[in-house]
Each structure stands twice: as C-alpha cells, then as structure tokens.
Design goal:
heterodimer, A: about 650 residues, mainly alpha, two-stranded antiparallel ribbon, 5 strands, about 75% helix, about 5% strand, B: about 300 residues, 11 helices, about 0% strand
Chain lengths: ~650, ~300
C-alpha cells in the first residue's frame, strides 16, 4: 500500500521536476520517462500482490473537505487495473521519450511530461480511491491532464477542436457521476465507498447514471463521439495510454459500481449486452470506413470497449440467472480483454505513431510497402493485428474465447431470456470478429505490404532503437498472455471474486475449469507453431534443389504495373462499407468519368460519425441558439461580475437563514 | 478406442483431395465430357511439390509464410474435427470456437499474402474474401450454437457422437435449417458456385483463385492441400449431421460418413453444373439468409 503511494508520489514529483527543467528537452524527458519507469517498477509489486489475493490494505486519513477523506484501498480489482496501468504506461513513456525529443528546440517538453506523469498518477489514484470526493478529484485531474496532452500540437486547429470536444464530453460524463455520488451519499450520509448501500428501488437509477457517466469515459455508444477526435489528435504515445488504459478506467468505474449496487436485475445485463453489441458493430464498421490510421484505431477502441461491456453483460445475465459458470467466465473474459486490449492497442498506436513519424502521413492510401523499410515495426504490428483479430495463438483469442465460452454455457440455461441474450452475444461477437479481421488485414496489408504509394512512404525508415524496443516489448506481452493463458486466467480468481461477489470457491472452481481447458488451447497453439516450422523447413528443403526466380508481380500479362494500380484501402473496404451504408452514409465527392478520353478526375469519400453529425451537432446548435438570449450576462466588465458574486452570496445567505 | 481418432485424423489427410476429383468428375459428366482423372488433385500436388518457385519482387516473408502457417492451421483443425461418430484425435469443451478461429487464421494469412503482391487483382479477391467471410462467420457460429444446444455439449466430438437418428425424430425442422445454413457456409468458404467460380482463372469475378495467383511451386501445393482439407472439414460438419448413423460397429459409421462425403461432393458438382455464379452484390443476401436460418433453428429449439 505504502509502495503504491510512493509510486504515485514519484510520478507527481518527477512530473514537477520535468516541468521545472522544461527548457532542456533532454532533462525533462529523462525526468519524465525515468519517473514513470521507476514508479511503475515500484507500483507493480503491491498491484500484483493484490491481484494474487493479498488481503486488501487501506489507509484512511481525515480531510478538511466536507464529506471528503483520503481513503484509499487496494483490493484485487484495483490491483488488476493497476497492473494494466503500470505495464503499458512505462512502455509508452519509453517510446514517447524518443518521439518527443524530435520536438527538441521547437517546444518546451516540460508540460507534456508533467501532464503525462500526472495522468498516470491520477489513473492510479482513481482505481484505489474509496471516497466519492477523492474519486471525483482524481477523476477530474485525469480528465484535465489528458486534455492538455491531447492539445499538445495546439497550433493545429483540428487538434484544438478535438480538445474542446473532449473537454465538453468528459465534463458531461462527470456531471452524471456527480449526481450518482450525491444520490449514493444522500442515502448513506457519507461518501466513503464502504458505507454505500444502494436501496433496491433506487439501484436502477444509479446503474443508469453509472452507465452514462462511466460509459462516456469508456467510449461506449452513444457517448463515444469524443474518442475518434481526441485519440487521433494526441501524440501517439498518449493515444496508446488513453486508448489502452484511460478508457478502461471507465470500465473500472462501471465494475466497481456493480459491486456496490447489489444483486443486478436481468435487464441490467441485457442493457450491457445491447450497449456492448451496438458499440462493437458501430465501432468496427466505422473503423472500416476510415482513411486516417489513428481515427481507425480509435474507432476500433470503441469496438473493443463494446466487446468488454458485452462480456460484462453476459456475466451479469449469468449472475441474475443463478449461473455461476456464465457469470465467472463472462467477467473473466471481460477483464482479460481489458488487459489484452491495453497490450495490443498500445502496440498498434505506437506502431502507427512510428509510421506517421517516419513518413509524415497517417493517410492509409499514401502508404504501402513499409515492411521492407521498417521490418521490426512491421513484425511487431502484425503481432498486434493478429491479436486484435482474436486469432489463435495470441492473447486476443483467449479473452474472446472466454466470452464465447460463457455465452455457449448460457445457452443451455433454463429460462429463454438468458438464452436470447447469450445467443445475440454469440452472433454479434462472430460478426464483429469477421469485420475486425477485414479491418486489420486492410491496415496491415495496405500500410506494410505491397508497393509504396507515395514518395514519403518510399523513403520511410525504422524509428529509434528505444521506440522499436517498446513496440517489441508490447508484442512480447501479447505472445506471453497467449502462451501462459491458463496461468493468467487462474490468477484472475480473486479479481473475478471481487467483481462478481460470488463465493471464492465457486469462482476458483469455474475459472480452474476454464484454465484447464485453456491448456488444450496452449497445446493447440504449440502444435500450430511446430507444424508451421516443420512445413517451412519442408518448403526450404524442397526449394533448395530447385530454381527460385524473382519477377514482377503477375498482372495478367500487363507489362508495366505501377504502385498506383494497387488496391487502396478505400477500394478494399468498399464492398463492406456499401453493405453498411445505412450506418455509414458515406459521402462521395468527385465527378464521374465522361467520354472516351475522360479528363482527369478525383474521388474523395468521407464517413463522418453518424451520431456526432446527426444527434450531437443539432443538439448543441439548438442549445447554443437557445442560450444566445442570456449571453448579455457575459460581457467582460469585472465590477459587474463582482456584483454577481455578491448577489449570489446574499441569496444563499437569505436561503440559509430563511 | 484408438481406432476412432485415427479414422477422423487420417481419412481427411488421405481422402480430402479426392473430393475435388469427385466434384470435377460430376461436373464433367453433367456437361457430357469425359473429365479429368479422379486423382487429378493428387497429381497436381505431386507435380507442384517437384517444382521450383517464382517470387514477385514486391513480396516479403509474409508471402511465403502465409501458406505454410495456413496449412498448419488446417492440420490442427483436422485434429479437433470428429468424423461420422468417430471422435477427433483431440477433443475438449470449447473446441468448436477454436475450429472457427483456426479457419479465420488461415483466411487472415491468405488475405495478407495476397495484399503482399501489390497486384490489383489479388487486392480485389482479398477484399471480397473478407467481405463474404465476415458475413459467413455468424452463420457458422450460430449453427454450432444450435448443435451445442441440441446435444448439450460444447465439444465437437461429443456433439457429433450424440447426434443420431433420434435427434432428427425430435427436432427435424431445426436440424434441417442448421444443415442448410452449414451448406451455404460450406459453399462460401470453399469458394464454390454460387459464391465464387473455382474454374475460371484471371477473371474479375473471382475470389479465392485470384488471391493465390502469384503463388507457385510448393507454396501453391500447400494452399491447394489446405483448401482440400477445408472442403473436408466443413463438409464433415454437414455430413455428421445428415448421416446420423451411430451403430455399435465403428467402421460401418465411418464408411457411411465417407460415402456421405462423396455424396456431398457429388451434390456440390450438381449445384455447380446447374446454376451460374451469383452477382457479387447478391451474395451477401445469401449469407445473411444463412445466418437467419441458423437463428431460426435456434428459435425452434428454444421454443
């Protein structure tokens, strides 16, 4: 426990020092990144101990803030999220140290490191906070620190807009949380988590508030609109942390609330399944339609949050139906997918950052052939792509297998409602899986394979050594979780116990069963690798005695193929985007070809977010028009503002006395 | 006891390419031709293994590791696939999900290997492949879910041991729907008419054949053998369901299932002879239809 506070202290301190020495880029980077790595090494020790089932430790200090207390506790659930924070963040920091140094001389590196370290410290504090005031303060610091990180390139107008959208969205989410904690506190007349006891008639309102508030941070549909904007505007190592870790803090809040709100009714589970499925399908369909690499990955995060919430939903349905197998496996699948997504999405964001850094563009249709020019980045990226497509033998498959297995176990459950919920989960997960495979064959194939589509892609080169090492470390993490799946799943027992509230021996029994089954999976993965190696040796042996030639790609007798004739990302995903045109409403701009010798023409397609354009923009426009009539209140004369304050105080005084 | 897994592992390894021969012979007979030898697929494999290879200068290691790992994935899938009441070499609860995702891995690798060539033709095939397989995936998994619900088991081997004549007596309409959905998945995933035309080369209408246009020599042999195994595996999902003979003598069951496989190959040949490839825009309707058939089967079973 104290080690954890030391780690948080080091993060804050190193951030402060980094901002103080901000004039020297090297010192700021050394302090910032070094602080994160040291803090993570210290902080991971109590986190792992907590996950493995160490007795929860807590510290409670009085605080002069009304209803506030410095009350922190590390139980298995907090420990699990701390492990996610302390594995991905230091790797992103190491990558970022090389990335930020290219801004050497142009920008002070003090602020970005300060906010980066404060962001990590606040995330760690959120997951251990056990008092409403402390939680909200840490939550707000997290939101503000990430806002300043998103707007790092603030000389770009698009980045500033993205920052504003994020700031507004995150505060609207916090508003829901404020009401949530007020209602919880009103009932318990304390804001300490251990006093919260939700009355059953209010639990559903509280649950909906939690879904809205925490769902906004997690990027759950329909609260996801800030996510594609902010994640594509931020520097890549920040996107990796935001997408890999920060949005999971929203999921943490949701799980923590589920533990507080008592036994869930069935419709909570259905709501989570429905929200998860719609986020998953919406996210992956929009990811398919994107040309901008980082926007694509951001939409893919919406999809993965959908899968996580789907797993939680299946778990809640299982809890309600009295099916501990379904409940344990659903929660375990969701939790494992949180870790997995942190690893592979972090990896993919860093990979895309390396590509953008090296070629100067994130436009898919400008890239190509990078595997030859960036072999290490490409190899790490393909690991991430296979993992995110949930294909064996990597970690992504294990998480989704657990969710599938939970759902398959739920089919036979008595009660048709349960069966309907889990069947839609199976069908939806299968559709999402197929679409993700389409999306990530596209990303890897168009960016890294084939021939370069522009001069900048032709000149691409590997990034700095530390950046490559960071990406390889995350790729190794994906392989590790895949290979040691039985161990990892067995280690989740205390976490799932806290999350579900089921008795420890039941959880241990069901997860032990799953862990034993996953040994078969590891055996299959080993067989797969061994067979592949054998076949590759067979191939080499067969070819060693024969002619092996090199030639241009066979293009049906056409003699002079050029890179421009390759399939592009838009053409690759066109059949699928046509199918989902009711959702995407893709806009085409350009003129059709006319005549036998047509003039040069251009075609541009864009798929702006349906909900952002169709729901939020009109809503905020309406709000803006409505509030125009009271704009005269805001005029910039300070003495009148002082008058406002005086009147407010007077009104409060009268109200209090009267 | 050891014989049953041996049958389900060795029969596909040996007989899978013969299915292609049967399909082609059926098409030839219907068209009034003599047709190629039944064993032509074996001759092709043997010839390709003897040959050298030509690689495009655009390609990387992805291009030649793809077919190798793809074949390995199909071999592992063969090891978990039961055949006609005979349990698979390896069986465990949840292996049905592994089967679907091993096929997915093989597809992923074929697609990226196709994109590695920088050819617009292969890009086109890759794009269509991912489109159709994304839509076939729910149909396959929901069909497997229906079978799991019917038999109360999550392992392919147990599912196919428990399906018998009795199951058809109880829920014939639902099982017929599942078989129909699986047939559509079978035709799609194996690139047969009405989704794809395996006989035309270099046409813009094609999917699978065009993706492997640049592969040659042993790589192409691996791809073709993996394709034959996939034909067998997805076929035995159907045959295990519609030939529900589960007698006490194991070899009779296996023989009946083998006969069923060749009947399925003949049926495929007849389908290919009697209809044209559908327009690409209509194929998704077919696949969504397959998904709905699986879902309807589930509804009937839950009723």
């Amino acid at each position: 426990m104290y080690l954890l506070l030391v780690a948080i202290g080091i993060l804050c301190l190193s951030g402060l020092v980094a901002s103080a020495v901000g004039r020297s880029s090297r010192w700021a980077t050394a302090c910032g990144a070094g602080g994160v790595v040291v803090a993570a090494l210290i902080g991971i020790v109590p986190s792992v101990a907590a996950v493995l089932g160490a007795t929860p430790q807590s510290i409670r200090l009085a605080w002069s803030v009304p209803y506030g207390a410095f009350f922190v506790e590390v139980d298995a659930l907090s420990g699990f999220f701390l492990v996610v924070i302390f594995t991905v963040c230091p790797i992103a920091a190491v990558w970022g140290s090389a990335y930020l140094l290219q801004h050497h001389g142009k920008k002070s590196l003090g602020p970005p490191w300060f906010f980066f370290n404060v962001l990590i410290a606040s995330m760690a504090l959120v997951v251990v906070a056990r008092n409403g005031v402390l939680f909200l303060v840490a939550w707000e610091v997290m939101a503000l620190a990430s806002f300043f990180l998103v707007t790092f390139d603030d000389d770009d107008e698009g980045v500033r807009d993205a920052g504003w959208i994020y700031l507004v969205a995150t505060h609207l989410g916090t508003a829901f949380l404020l009401v949530l904690f007020l209602l919880l506190g009103e009932h318990a007349s304390s804001l300490d988590f251990d006093r919260f006891l939700a009355s059953p008639e209010r639990a559903s309102v509280l649950f909906l508030l939690a879904v809205c508030g925490f769902g906004t941070k997690a990027g759950l549909l329909p609260f996801h609109v800030w996510l594609p904007e902010a994640h594509s505007a931020a520097p890549s190592h920040v996107s990796a942390v935001m997408s890999g870790v920060m949005i999971k803090i929203g999921i943490y809040g949701l799980i923590r609330m589920l533990t507080i709100l008592g036994p869930p009714p069935a419709w909570w589970g259905w709501l989570l399944v429905a929200a998860g499925l719609s986020s998953g399908i919406y996210g992956v369909v929009f990811a398919l339609a994107q040309h901008d690499l980082k926007r694509l990955l951001a939409y893919s995060s919406v999809e993965n949050v959908g899968i996580i919430v789907l797993g939680l939903g299946v778990g809640v349905v299982g809890l309600d139906a009295g099916q501990p197998t379904v409940a344990t496996l659903g929660f375990a699948g969701a939790l494992l997918h949180i870790l997995n997504h942190a690893l592979f999405k972090g990896l993919l964001f860093l990979g895309v950052g390396a590509v953008a850094h090296s070629t100067g563009t994130r436009e898919l249709d400008q890239l190509g052939g990078l595997l030859k020019r960036m072999p290490v980045t490409g190899a790490a990226f393909v690991v991430g792509a296979v993992a995110i497509a949930a294909l064996p033998p990597l970690n992504g498959f294990v998480g989704e297998w657990l969710i599938y297995f939970a759902a398959f176990n739920g089919i036979a459950a008595p009660g048709r409602d349960t069966a309907t919920a889990v069947l839609s989960a199976i069908g939806g997960l299968a559709l999402i899986g197929g679409l993700v495979a389409a999306g990530f064959t596209k990303v890897f194939g168009i960016v890294f394979l084939g021939e370069p589509r522009s001069r900048s892609a032709e000149r691409a080169a590997e990034p700095a050594l530390v950046m490559r090492a960071a990406m390889l470390a995350l790729a190794a993490g994906c392989v590790f979780v895949g290979c040691f799946a039985p161990v990892v799943v067995a280690a989740l027992v205390p976490v799932v116990r806290v999350a579900t509230g089921l008795p420890a021996d039941a959880v241990a029994q069901h997860l032990g069963e799953a862990s034993r089954l996953l040994r078969w999976f590891v055996a299959a993965a080993a067989a797969l690798v061994a067979t592949s190696v054998l076949i590759l040796f067979l191939r080499r042996w067969l070819l060693s005695r024969r002619d092996v030639g090199a030639a241009p790609t066979w293009d049906c007798g056409y003699a002079a193929p050029t890179p421009r004739m390759q399939y592009t990302s838009s053409s690759f995903s066109q059949p699928l985007t046509e199918l989902f045109t009711f959702l995407l409403q893709t806009r085409h701009r350009g003129s059709a070809l006319k005549g036998l010798l047509p003039d040069p023409t251009a075609l541009a397609t864009a798929a702006p977010d349906l909900l952002a354009d169709g729901m939020y923009r009109p809503l905020f426009d309406l709000l803006g028009r409505g509030l125009r009539s009271v704009r005269w209140v805001q005029h910039g004369r300070v003495h009148v503002y002082v008058l406002y304050i005086a009147i407010t105080l007077l009104v409060l005084l009268v109200w209090k006395l009267g | 006891m050891i014989r049953a897994p041996l049958a389900s592992l060795c029969l596909p390894l040996v007989l899978a390419p013969l299915l292609l021969g049967v399909i082609n012979r059926t098409k030839a007979i219907v068209a009034g031709r003599k047709g190629q030898p039944l064993l032509q697929a074996y001759f092709d494999l043997w010839k390709l293994l003897q040959k050298g290879a030509v690689y495009s200068r655009s390609t990387t290691w992805v291009f030649y590791t793809g077919p190798a790992i793809g074949l390995a994935a199909l071999l592992v899938a063969t090891a978990i696939m039961p055949f006609g009441g005979a349990a698979a070499a390896v069986a465990f609860p949840g292996d049905l999900i592994l089967l679907a995702y091993l096929l997915g891995l093989a597809r992923f690798l074929t697609v990226v290997a196709a994109l590695d060539t920088a050819s617009s033709f292969e890009g086109m095939g890759a794009s269509r492949e991912v489109t159709f397989s994304a839509l076939a995936e729910p149909a396959l998994l929901l069909a497997l879910a229906a079978l799991a619900l019917q038999t109360g088991s999550l392992s392919l081997s147990t599912i196919y041991t428990r399906i018998g004549v009795g199951s058809w007596g109880a829920t014939a309409p639902a099982l017929a729907l599942v078989a129909g959905a699986l047939l559509l998945v079978f035709l799609t995933e194996n690139a047969r008419i009405p989704v794809d035309d395996p006989t035309t080369h270099l046409e813009l209408t094609m999917i699978h054949e065009v993706m492997v246009l640049d592969h040659s020599g042993p790589d192409l042999a691996f791809i073709q053998y993996a394709g034959a195994l996939k034909l067998w595996l997805l076929g035995s999902l159907i045959v295990g369901l519609v030939v529900p003979l589960r007698s006490t003598t194991a070899w009779i069951d296996v023989a009946a299932a083998t006969a069923g496989m060749f009947a399925l190959a003949t049926l495929t040949g007849l389908i290919e002879s009697s209809m044209a490839r559908w327009r690409l825009l209509r194929v998704p309707q077919l696949l969504v239809g397959a998904g709905l058939m699986s879902a309807l089967a589930l509804v009937l079973m839950l009723r």
